C-alpha cells in the first residue's frame, strides 16, 4: 500500500511538471523612432517593454519642431496585444492614453464695404493641454538580429477641453524603425 501511495504521489509530481508551458526566451526591450514624423517636422521616440509573447507596455514622446504642426507635445502610454506567431510581432491592437499640448489659432476678419471685402485683422494663439483616450491597430515585423519595422494608426478623443476647441479627435500613427534588445 505504501508503494502504491508513493507511486501515485510521484506520478502527480511528474504530471505537474509536464503541464508547464515552454517559454521562449527573447529580448524584451524595444527602442523606436518614428520616421514619418521626422520627415514631417516632429520627433517621436518610443520605448516598449514586452511583458510576454503576446503583450507589451510602452510610452511614446512626441515633440514638434515645425511651427506648422499644431500639436507641440504629447506623452502617450499604451498597452498592446499581439496576434502574430513570432513573440510580440505581427498584427496588434492597442489602447492608449495621450497627454497632449496643442496650439489653437483663432482668426478674426474685418468686413468692409469696398475691396478687399474681408481682411485678416488678428490671429490669437492659445496653448491648451488635454488628455485623450483611444485605440489603435498596426503590425510589427522583427528580424532575427532584432531590427524592427512597424506601421500603426489610431485615434482617440480629448476628454477635458475639447468642447472649447476644434481638437476633439487626436490621431496616432506612423512608420517606425527600431531595435529589440
What features would you highlight for this structure?
181 residues; mainly beta; Porin; 8-stranded antiparallel β-barrel; 13% helix; 60% strand; elongated
- Spatial extent as radius of gyration: 25 Å
Class by SSE composition: mainly beta
How much helicity do the residues have? 10-25%
Q: What can be said about the biggest beta sheet?
A: 8 strands, antiparallel, barrel
| SS summary, helix count | 2
Q: How do the helices and strands follow one another from N- to C-terminus?
A: HEHEEEEEEE
CATH topology: Porin
Strand coverage percent? over 45%
Mean of the pLDDT scores? Answer: 86
Which CATH C-level class is it? Mainly Beta
Looking at the overall shape, the CATH architecture is Beta Barrel
Low-confidence stretches: none
Q: How many strands?
A: 8
Strand arrangement in the largest pleated sheet: 1-2-3-4-5-6-7-8
N-C termini distance: 55 Å
**Total domain modules:** 1
Task: Describe this protein's structure.
The protein has 181 residues and is mostly beta strands. The protein has one domain (27-180): Porin, CATH 2.40.160.20. It is 13% helix and 60% strand. It is built from 2 helices and 8 strands; from the N terminus they run H-E-H-E-E-E-E-E-E-E. It has helices spanning 2-18, 35-40, and strands at 29-34, 42-50, 55-64, 71-82, 90-111, 118-142, 147-158, 169-180. Strands 1-2-3-4-5-6-7-8 form an 8-stranded antiparallel β-barrel. The protein is elongated. The relative contact order is 0.17. The mean pLDDT is 86.
